[in-house]
Amino acid sequence: MLYRIAKILNHNSFIGISDENDQECLVMGKGVAFGKKVGQTVSAATEAKAYSLKEMTERGDAKDIIKSVSPLCLELANEVLSRAEKEFEKVDRTILFTMADHLDFAIRRVQNGEQISNPLTDDIRVMFYKEYKVASCIRELLKEKLQIEIDDHEIGYIALHVHAAVVDENVSQAMEIARTVRECISLVEKETGNSIDVMSLGYNRLMNHVRYMVARAIHGEKLKMNLNEYMSVKFPGPYMAAERICRQMEKSLKLPVPDIEIGYLAMHLERMLETNVNE
């Protein structure tokens, strides 16, 4: 692909006009702009990544974000997405702009000695395990490039951006799912009188079920098989607890949670309670 260079950001990135469709793009790759000049037409290496500047993001226009963040943050976001591609194969790279914007703020916070708190960090680490593992690469990158340390809370937020690049959810939806799952797990603990170990298999099963239950409610999807009659007769205690939890989740989400979800949640509650008894 050929690009006419409109602006050089640094040795590894430039803004160029595509020869193919006359579209303005951010082009990134090792040494892609080294020794080049504005107005020059260059061929980008196959491993270089091109991002359309027509993108609109949660945080605004891609063109505006490029003006306000450092080229290094764009490079860091590009590297995180490359790691995500190795882990997940297919990712939506348009998330680069919002991730770079977040990284820019995160770096400034660290440099100013400001700390953020993310009460959902542990839940994000478990719920989005692979995304968190990918996002953790930013720790070494920032140490190497800027000699700064980033904490787990910041990595948790970056993991949500990685998640948004992997599935059809934006960062605020992913955060809402994490928050609602945490609330649901707290309700389960209250209903059953059991404290749930976040590292246990029972928690992982329950958390994953609740995560997809919340996502289904947000996206208006429905389960096909109905377990309500079986669970209400066979396991009335877990069934009634599941019903109360689903009604509470409706209030929190301000969305309907279909009755068909009750039986499935009851099944997971029963499995978790059984596991706790056996342990």
Automatic annotation (TrEMBL):
Top-level taxon of origin: Bacteria
A GO BP entry: regulation of DNA-templated transcription
Pfam hit, one: CAT_RBD
Tagged with keyword Coiled coil: no
Domain PRD: 68-172, 173-279
InterPro entries: BglG_antiterminators, CAT_RNA-bd_dom, CAT_RNA-bd_dom_sf, PRD, PRD_sf
Name this protein carries in UniProt: PRD domain-containing protein
Keywords: Repeat
Repeat keyword on record: yes
Gene3D superfamilies with a match to the protein in the record: 1.20.58.1950, 1.20.890.100, CAT RNA-binding domain, PRD domain
Gene Ontology MF annotations: RNA binding
